[in-house]
Amino acid sequence: MKLVVTGGAGYIGSVVTSQLLEAGHEVVVVDDLSTGHEDAVPEGARLEVRRIHDARDLLLRGGFDGVLHFAAKSLVGESVEDPQLYWENNVVGSYVLFDAVRAAGIPRVVFSSTAAVYGEPEVSPITEDVTPSPINPYGHAKFAVDMLLTGYAKAYGMGATSLRYFNVGGARGRFGERHAVETHLIPNVLKVPAGERETVSIFGDDYDTPDGTAVRDYLHVVDLGRAHLLALESSEPGRHRVFNLGSGSGYSVKEVIDTCREVTGHPVPAEVKARRAGDPTTLVASSRRAGEELGWRPELTLHDIVTDAWAFMQGPR
Q1: Burial, 159: exposed, middle or buried (Cβ in 10 Å; 0-12, 13-18, 19+)?
Q2: Known catalytic residue: 207?
Q3: Is residue 228 pLDDT above 70, yes or no?
Q4: Span 48-56, mean pLDDT?
Q5: Fewer Cβ within 10 Å of end Cβ, the chain: N or C?
Q6: Which entry of 138, 165, 207, 251 is annotated as an active-site residue?
Q7: What is the DSSP string of 233-262?
Q8: What is the average per-residue pLDDT within 155-166?
């Protein structure tokens, strides 16, 4: 297939682009390089440096078979401080993009959504039957695009899939995580053995969990990429499918830190601090529906995630 990957110069987009190329697809990457890196675009993909707001002409004349949409602002705190940025980029940009998909008659799209659309549900693991109730502009914006796709699929026959997940880690060879502002736990823990910080913080050790620390979902980026390829290949005209992707059980903060210690051989000093306001005890997504309908299940472990992330962090850029 001839495909467009938006955000293909970013972390997840670059990994998925490499997987698509390996599977024999032709890929055009659309990325404005505001947070992505030009050298992260895999060899064999063509890079179009532009915003998703400006991709209409490319889509109309490209003869594409599908679009995988990763390009988005993705910092929760930033979305609270500057919601305009998230509505203009993530919602308006996605509307312009998907309306161009409609006009061009491109039959299938896969949208990188988020399990943050569910807010802080009491149910765990979170299934697709949980009513979305996002609690920040980032989650609101992603859910708005999900709803757009539901309407477009029904009205225009588009085959659309939204994939909702929490934390992603690991790397695929030279394609890995390098954010200007790093908010994710695993790379921040690995900054200690890398010599970039002295300690890591644990925000609360009195949660109702086996070791007292909060539990979160982590997926290897390679497993996540496989789900995108499966969703693309199984797209159904006129239907918007939603799949949660998760480990089903999650990992505690202490488990993550202990795994980083094991992989790196570094003691990784940790400092317990007070809980952060609004941090739920457990956030884990169920991937049962994805297993039943896509044949997808996570294959890689937390140890694999940390091992590959550490190798990427130590490797050449």
Answers
A1: buried
A2: no
A3: yes
A4: 97
A5: C
A6: 138
A7: HT--TT-EEEEEE--SS-EEHHHHHHHHHH
A8: 96
Cα of first residue to Cα of last residue in the chain, in angstroms, is 30
Confidence tier at 257 by pLDDT (50, 70, 90): very high
Q: Is the pLDDT of residue 248 over 90?
A: no
- With H, G, I as helix, E, B as strand and everything else as coil, classify residue 163: strand
CA–CA gap between residue 90 and residue 181 (Å, rounded) = 18
221-233 and 11-22 helices, crossing angle to 10°? 60
Please report, as a single letter, which amino acid is at residue 21. Answer: L
What's the alpha-carbon Rg for the chain, to the nearest Å? Answer: 19
Per DSSP, 178 falls in state -
User: Which phi and psi (to 5°) does residue 169 adopt?
Assistant: -145, 180
Q: What single-letter amino acid sits at 20?
A: L
If pLDDT is split at 50, 70 and 90, which confidence band does 264 have?
A: very high
Q: Which of 242, 233, 230 is nearest to 286 (CA)?
A: 242
If you average pLDDT over residues 42-68, what whole number do you get? 97
Taking residues 239-252, what's their average pLDDT? 93
> Which CA distances in Å does 309 have to 60, 74, 124, 190, 191?
38, 20, 27, 8, 11
CA distance 39 to 208: 44
Spatial contact of 275 and 208, defined as CB atoms under 8 Å apart = no
The 10s digit of each residue's pLDDT in 138-153 is 999 999 999 999 999 9
Read off the DSSP letter of residue 285: B
d(CA 308, CA 34): 25
85 CB neighbour count, 10 Å cutoff: 15
